[in-house]
User: Fold this.
Amino acid sequence: MMRVEEISRRGFLAAGAASVALVGVGGFGAVTKQADAAFVRPPGAASGAELVASCDRCQKCLQACPYGIVTPVPLAESLVAYGTPTIAYEHGFCDFCMKCVDACPTGALAYGGLAERDMGVAVVVRDACVAWDWAGCTVCKEECPVEGAITLDEQDRPVVHPDYCDGCGKCEQVCPSASLRAYDASVENKGIVVVSRASVAAHASGSIGSEELQTGRFARAGEALAPHTKGVHPDGPDATREAGGAA
Assistant:
């Protein structure tokens, strides 16, 4: 049986108390900034602030996900967004089966809108990506389910095309960098990771360093990267769909 991390009542109340404290110290701007942090969200999520306002932390989306990739935002990462759903691609990727959306009772995850099947965008972490040091690793390109989302440059290094990529996370899941670079704790454990299109990290040109990723992964940019508009994308375990096409 899939293990689901549960949010204790005490933890939920603690998050609420911390939010009140933030209001007292930094005003509503501080709360809004934390609420709208650039986490990668499940399909159907609008802005971070809207999701935080609508989500009742019931965790039904976590329980509904057949791949175990929906997980709560940890308290250490956000006091305000604590317990709302984010995505972790260590053990799976999203094929947009939409079971999380179907399970959501509050509309925090919903059909319609640009975010319905656009979760984020992959970025190459150049100091973790094996292809930047040694030739031959093309796993992310080979495993990407959307043709054209990842190509190789003249040195056989991966390049992500945001207008094709929908942030499904297959590339991050299969990236072998964690085992090949286990000797170096200073870099990310994946050579390619998915970030929110609203994040500073999403605006990196071609690639990003581990340090830049850490500072820009959850930081919200002034303007979100445009959603994908091209390619044929996963649409459940047995179907595909052109970008912008109906479900």
User: Anything to note?
Assistant: The first strand starts at residue 70 and ends at 72. The chain has eight helices and eight strands.
